[in-house]
Amino acid sequence: MPSSSPVRGLLFVTMQPKETLSLDLFHDWYNNEHGPNRTRLSFMPNGFRYRATDLPEPNAGTRAHPEFLATYDATDMHQFTEQPYQYLRAPPGKTRREIDVMAQIWVDRLTLDFVGERVNDKTFVKLEAPENFRENEQGNALTTLRLLLAPEQVSSVGDWIQTTVLPKVQDIPGWRRTSWYQTSYLEPREDGQVDFVLINEFTPSTDPKALLPTFQALPVDVADSKARTYELFYTFGTAARHLAIVAPWTSPDGVTRTLPNISPYGSAIESTVTTRDGAVLPFRLEGSSEPNAPVLVLVNSVLTTWGIWDAFLVHFFSRPQNQRYRVLRFLARGRVIPSGTTSPVTVDLQASDIIQLLDALRVPQAAGLVGVSMGGVTALATALQYPSRIKAFVACDTSAKSPAGNKDTWGQRIAVAAKEGTTLRLASLFGDESPDASPQAVVGEELAEMTVRRWFVPESYDNPELVPEIARVKRMVYTNSLPEFRRGVETLFNYDYTGLLAGYKGRGAFLVGAGDGVLPKGMEKLSKELGSAEGNTAIFKLVEGAGHLPMVEKPKEVADFVGDFLNAP
Hints:
The protein has about 575 residues and is an alpha+beta fold. About 30% of the residues lie in helices and about 25% in strands. The chain is built from 16 helices and 20 strands. The strands form 3 sheets. A 10-stranded mixed β-sheet has the order 9-10-11-12-14-13-15-16-19-20, sandwiched between helices. Helix 6 (about 310-320) packs across helix 16 (about 555-565). The radius of gyration is 27 Å and the shape is elongated. This is AB hydrolase-1 domain-containing protein.
């Protein structure tokens, strides 16, 4: 529970890997396990990793002068004593891998209470905030001054900061903020002395060494004094995203796992993001290990998992020019128990979920967004409502306005599943089954068979390569949580984005299976309406021999189209 009078503070940690620890494993562990586990906590709004710039050369850190610094702001220092954080400090929350890795690092960890700060309103930005992604990518420079003081010296140092440091630092172009901290009430030193840390932040173009001479004229004789300079090189989100994975890892709760070199191209991470209203969205991120690689987001139809894109990705990544991408897939609301919220589900809400996934994974702009059916209208709505966050989109087998009678049609389908009454023992957010889990109502056989017969063209049932894929999609429908299906399908009841089409200024395309009922005609019309007021022309693609899920029936054709569309100049 939050404190009634929360004390603001900072977690300040320097680290130096020993020679026995590879830097690749160090970064894999820190970026995928240690850091995100902390920035998931509500009282830690950010986490930054800095690398020292005052060493003779890179990778020249020592125990006395460690190369790496991590800082985490804390809105309520008392939360360090509570179970969510303490769980991470000992097994099982502190995993065997973490124990083994940290045994090979010199770590100096300080919990510090906030004392004071001065902010430059013209240059300071919250680098963790999504609206400041561009500034974050450019970086941040730091000077830190760490002092070991007697308690009676603290006020003199505080006065010196006000009278000497602040006037000088404010004259340095690029100065952003100066803040200072002292040993937290939570963890007082046994010797009674006080750790005092002064931090000055600058824009990346600034040379922070200009301030260092000021630190040589301290107002008191101190037991220890150390001034350092750093530059920002990694900012944590609320989810793991480091795809330069060295070793597989699974969190003790089973929610996060990292998978080296198992996807069609590169490594993969499976984990979750929690939205502002408490919904838990499982995701899979895979592909290029470059941290700033362009990201392609794929959005499923109702009643399916991200597995509908498996064959598509095999073909997509088989083309060398596409191996520069990362691909993000996720399970939208309406798939699994528990979703974590009872919010009414709308297309607008599903679109905001995509933006929150991008925020959590520190993606300023998706290079591409492709969705099918319910995912198709979600992709369209996201691009129309958040144009700065989506560079290009492809909406598949969908419409810009909900068809009349949609609510009644889906109500009838829900009734079919409810009457059948099938249950499964669903054990996780990812839909895994276990004999130890409690039975949950699922969609079941009858609606699953009705659905796939409607989705796939008849000739696909005669294709021996597609028969197993159709069976796999049918199993996705069969195992969908019935209560969540009942809620999630509300997305399709009442939406209308036709009024936003003409004014769209970005790049869009519409793709549809030729055998998908009346949708081909309607989507060709959409392609002519999108951006019409701006003189833009959207691309229309008809996929012959495919129905409602063309990426399943014709994965190569769809992958080639999407790759060509994204890579076009």
